[in-house]
Amino acid sequence: MTTTDRHAGTTPGEKKIVFDWAGVLFRWHPETMLKREIPHIASDDAAAARWRHEIFQAYGGDWGEFDRGTVQAAELVQRIARRTGLPAADIQRVVDRVPHELQPIADTVRWLGELREQGRTLFFLSNMPEPYAAHLEREHAFIGWFAAGVISARVRHIKPEAGIFALAAERFGVADPGELVFLDDHLPNVESARSLGWNALQFFDAAQARADLASHGWA
Asked: Contact at 8 Å (CB) between 181 and 198?
């Protein structure tokens, strides 16, 4: 455990665990998806990385507003096509295929089930457009294992903004955010949560997250 991993001022002990979705509970490999869905554009690793940046904008810009729920899919396609010069049909294909890219990560789901059996309190906090969230909720019964959750498009806030963390803590019924430990693969979200008094760990895989929780005394 390094000083950058440790959240100052927290009390060791069992925490309520808050899971991100994409990259934590569900697979998210955008470059792989782009090479598969638009291979004539994302023809190799370098091209796929370039178009990942152009299309998703580090989940800010147009895509951030899609996550926030203030831009709908049809408008998003047109915005990205105008901004990048890519054909709208290619952008539409990417937008349509994202929820199918979001497949459960077996190790995380297995760990989630173990935590549930142990009686741990589980929440989720995800940047996610409404149609994608609704698709995942229909397809995956394990979403019902969470006591509560926040989807960005439903509350008009996105990570790493402070507002979504405050709203989440309120919805989770937690007065002291130090009772929570947040798992997210995107470091800016982890850093924002920490700055607001949450415990937070960057997620790489279930084994690492499980070990990090134990090393902090939060397991």
From this structure: yes
Closest-CA residue to 129 (of 14, 22, 53): 22
Residue closest to 201 by CA, chosen among 50, 217, 103: 217
Q: Which amino acid is at 49?
A: A
Please indicate, yes or no, whether residues 176 and 115 belong to a single structural domain of this protein: yes
Q: Contact at 8 Å (CB) between 139 and 132?
A: no
Burial label for 144, CB within 10 Å (0-12, 13-18, 19+), is exposed
Closest listed residue to residue 28, CA positions, set 78, 75, 69, 67: 67
Instruction: Tell me the C-alpha distance between 127 and 134, whole Å.
Output: 13
| Listed residues 53, 71, 101: the one ending a domain | 101
pLDDT digit string (tens) for 168-195? 999 999 999 999 999 999 999 999 999 9
Taking the complete model, does pTM exceed 0.70, yes or no? Answer: yes
Cite the beta strand spans of the chain per DSSP E. 16-19, 122-126, 148-151, 180-184, 199-202
